[in-house]
Recover the amino acids of this structure.
């Protein structure tokens, strides 16, 4: 039998004792939460770039039958993808993904499974953000590039994405902030991020309030640092940080 | 150089172009005039397939235009457009606006493309603004950069879609001067414009359109001095009486 640390009965003293005895668990939780949120947002962004290209294709009657068919299939796929991932809770997605794979005989490490779910989920939201960013651009930008003979790929790469991306930075930052907090739901599949660790500590001594006050404070600090960093980034990019500031207050409520 | 045969365009709410046929000769300046909604901009845009015709063919240098990628990219390389709304690439400097297509479409090196860009920018008097962003320019300056961007591609044909219509009156002249100076370059030009004086001064030929059809298509001098059709007369008369 492992002997449990003794935790003082008072609220504040209890909290201090929990931190002293369990800080390695909290630290590991912080690491995992940061990893999941940051890597998940970046991977999600990468996937979103691909999805948005699939989604905004215009179907027309020109070209080979096979290319038209591929266009149609990929466009529908992207549409369904976005609808499904935005239309179901990430917690449910995590359960289905992890246990679905397990049922098929694939045992995936929970961290990898968690990261996959965050990335796929984020991709759906960022696809929509990218899409509106692209469609918000003046149609003339595309026309001008077309009239100069640029290929569709060059037009996206050199003309449209750079402009849409710049406008999107506040929205991507927002997605990161959402992910910092929402990765908590991955605890349902046993990913040892901050919330999971908080529950472990709490369960060990039946000191839920104390353990989760610590968790809440840590989340708050991480998010505040992220908000500050994103604001600096967006100032650095020479843009007004109005968007982030507005969304920040919306998020923290 | 360009042959347009029986061109029709239908946006789904009636025909915008009705059976338009036209022959554009190399090295000539062609001006399309006509009232709003006459289809002149649509005709111009079909010439490099920014609009895809519903019917009819366009043959440029022996190549029939189709919406296939390879054909389009080739055709557009030869025929570049100057837009009413400028459409400079907002995220790029003036210089990069003039080099990006050279590098990506023509495969020129950065060095060559910048040399060419400066050459074009000098022609429009904008070389000293090379490092500015479009947002730091006036409308007239933007349009001059738009012209330089098109010129830098060494196009065979330069298409102008109402290049001065979106400008404040005091900026129209600087752009018109640039266009006038281009005539000596021996480019084939097609202009859609409301500037009758410009048409009279630089056009070899004037095409008058109304309600999606070419009403009259004649040499500049004759169309201004003795228009054949009543509608042309009425349209031109309107401009003269306004003066």
């Amino acid at each position: 039998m492992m002997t449990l640390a003794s935790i003082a009965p008072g609220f504040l003293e209890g909290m201090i004792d929990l931190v002293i005895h369990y800080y390695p668990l909290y630290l590991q939780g912080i690491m995992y939460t940061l990893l999941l949120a940051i890597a998940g947002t970046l991977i999600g962004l990468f996937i979103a770039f691909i999805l948005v290209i699939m989604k905004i294709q215009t179907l027309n009657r020109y070209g080979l039958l096979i290319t038209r068919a591929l266009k149609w299939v990929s466009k529908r796929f992207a549409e369904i993808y976005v609808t499904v991932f935005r239309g179901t809770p990430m917690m449910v997605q995590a359960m289905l993904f992890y246990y679905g794979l397990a049922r098929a005989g694939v045992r995936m490490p929970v961290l990898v499974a968690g990261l996959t779910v965050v990335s796929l989920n984020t991709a759906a939201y960022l696809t929509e953000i990218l899409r509106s960013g692209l469609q918000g651009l003046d149609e003339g930008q595309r026309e001008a590039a077309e009239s100069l003979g640029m290929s569709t790929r060059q037009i996206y790469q050199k003309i449209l994405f750079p402009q849409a991306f710049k406008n999107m930075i506040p929205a991507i930052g927002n997605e990161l902030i959402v992910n910092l907090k929402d990765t908590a739901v991955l605890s349902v599949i046993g990913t040892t991020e901050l919330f999971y660790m908080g529950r472990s500590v709490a369960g060990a001594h039946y000191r839920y309030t104390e353990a989760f006050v610590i968790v809440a404070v840590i989340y708050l600090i991480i998010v505040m640092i992220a908000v500050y960093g994103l604001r600096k980034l967006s100032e650095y990019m020479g843009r007004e940080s109005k968007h982030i500031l507005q969304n920040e207050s919306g998020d923290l409520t | 150089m360009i042959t347009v045969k029986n061109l029709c365009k239908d946006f789904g709410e009636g025909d915008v172009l009705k059976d338009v046929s036209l022959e554009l000769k190399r090295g000539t300046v062609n001006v399309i005039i006509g009232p709003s909604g006459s289809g002149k901009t649509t005709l111009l845009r079909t010439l490099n397939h920014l609009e895809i015709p519903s019917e009819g063919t366009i043959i440029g240098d022996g190549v029939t235009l189709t919406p296939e990628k390879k054909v389009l990219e080739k055709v557009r390389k030869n025929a570049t457009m100057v837009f009413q709304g400028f459409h400079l690439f907002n995220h790029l400097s003036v210089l990069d606006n003039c080099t990006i297509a050279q590098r990506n479409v023509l495969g020129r090196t950065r060095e060559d493309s910048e040399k060419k860009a400066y050459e074009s920018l000098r022609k429009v008097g904008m070389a000293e603004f090379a490092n500015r962003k479009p947002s730091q320019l006036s409308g007239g300056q933007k349009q001059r950069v738009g012209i330089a961007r098109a010129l830098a591609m060494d196009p065979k044909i330069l298409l102008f879609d109402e290049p001065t219509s979106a400008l404040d009156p005091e900026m129209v002249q600087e752009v018109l001067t640039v266009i006038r100076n281009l005539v000596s370059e021996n480019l084939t030009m097609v202009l859609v414009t409301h500037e009758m004086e410009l048409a009279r001064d630089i056009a070899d030929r004037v095409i008058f359109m109304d309600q999606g059809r070419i009403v009259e298509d004649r040499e500049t001098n004759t169309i201004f001095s003795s228009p054949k059709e009543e509608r042309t007369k009425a349209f031109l008369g309107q401009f003269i009486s306004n003066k």
Notes: The CA atoms of residues 114 and 186 of chain A lie 6 Å apart. Confidence is low (pLDDT under 50) at residues 240-253 of chain A. Chain A touches chain B at residues 60, 62-63, 138, 140-141, 143-152, 154, 158-159, 162-163, 166 (CB under 8 Å). The first helix of chain A runs from residue 11 to 55.
